[in-house]
Design brief:
- This protein is of the alpha+beta class.
- The chain has a single domain (about 5-310), classed as Double-stranded beta-helix (4-Layer Sandwich).
- The chain contains 8 helices and 18 strands.
- The longest helix is centred in the C-terminal third of the chain and has 15 residues, at about 230-245.
């Protein structure tokens, strides 16, 4: 996802898209484009620039087929397989089904302790090279409920005190796939994690490869401990950072309609899938593609370390 035009160039030239911010720190609605058709190089650059600035962007009334979804996504980078652990849509290997009762949810059983950050995550940060971005398409949407939320991890980092920023700039954390604390899981799910599980050591503060911004890289669902701290120290620091990262003023909440597209930068955001959908009978079906990402780099210039599993590569048809 390299940026081939400067922000100044894009701001001084006539635009092909409209960009309407929806909150102070994160989120913008994009208009003026039909995603079912190939985009001009200028439109691609403008959409990329909007994504880098607003972290998550939304498109309305885009009723795409699987093939059109793939074609749109490929204009922004190489695609991974649907999900490195939970598979893909049959006959469309690069698409992951976000269904109400999708595979990942079916494997989990029992309750969990709810905290302000419960469920928030960036996609697959347990991998050595987490996806750069995700593109989610709404198809069957409940008449109410089912909203998704995102938070801006750059704004969250900037919102910390200078003293705390200086402390965490040099720290690293272990991210892995495992059942959340206090959550039961099936034996089938545990076996899946044993065979396809991933774990990596990432910096707590990631330098964005395109903007140079520092992001608080603390994906609550995957980040398990801080390297070099005692267990109690690690727990308390992570609770503080997670609670801070999902503060309301850093977030945006999106009300889905059929045909909507959400495109987010996985390197500078976390998001929260809805849980209220399990309290109504209505169906909810979305589909996601993900763009291949790079290895995170910290403030000290050092890249992440892989502890388990292989990098998430671009899908190549056999």
């Amino acid at each position: 996802m390299s940026n081939t035009a400067t922000i100044h160039d894009l701001e001084t030239a006539p635009t092909e898209i409209t960009v309407d911010p929806v909150s102070i720190h994160i989120g913008a609605e994009i208009g003026g484009v039909d995603l079912a058709k190939p985009l001009s190089s200028k439109a691609v650059m403008e959409i990329r620039a909007a994504l880098l600035k607003w972290k998550v962007i939304f498109f309305h009334d885009q009723n795409l087929s699987h093939e059109q979804h793939l074609d749109f996504s490929r204009q922004f980078g190489e695609l991974t397989i649907g999900h490195a652990v939970f598979g893909n849509v049959e006959e469309h290997p690069e698409i992951y089904s976000i269904a109400k009762h999708r595979k990942a949810n079916r494997y989990k059983t029992g309750g969990k302790m709810e905290r302000p950050w419960t469920g928030w995550h960036a996609d697959i940060t347990a991998a050595i090279n987490p996806p750069a971005a995700s593109i989610l398409r709404g198809v069957n949407i409940p008449p109410y409920g089912g909203d998704t939320q995102w938070t801006n991890l750059v704004a969250a980092y900037n919102g910390l005190s200078e003293t705390l920023r200086g402390f965490i700039d040099g720290l690293r954390g272990v991210h892995r796939f495992e059942p959340a604390q206090g959550t039961e899981s099936s034996e089938e799910y545990r076996e899946l994690l044993r065979t396809k599980g991933q774990a990596s050591e990432h910096p707590l503060v990631r330098v964005h490869p395109e903007t140079g911004e520092r992001a608080l890289y603390v994906s609550p669902s995957f980040l398990k401990s801080v390297v070099g701290l005692a267990p109690r120290e690690s727990e308390q620091l992570l609770h503080l950072l997670w609670e801070h990262a999902v503060r309301q003023d850093f977030t945006v909440r999106f009300r889905w309609k059929a045909g909507d597209i959400a495109f987010w930068d996985n390197r500078s955001t976390c998001h929260l899938a809805p849980s209220d959908i399990f309290q109504i009978d209505a169906d909810r079906q979305l589909y996601r593609t993900t763009l291949v990402g790079d290895v995170p780099v910290g403030v000290d210039g050092k890249p992440s370390n892989s502890l388990q599993g292989e990098p998430i590569l671009a899908y190549a048809a056999e």
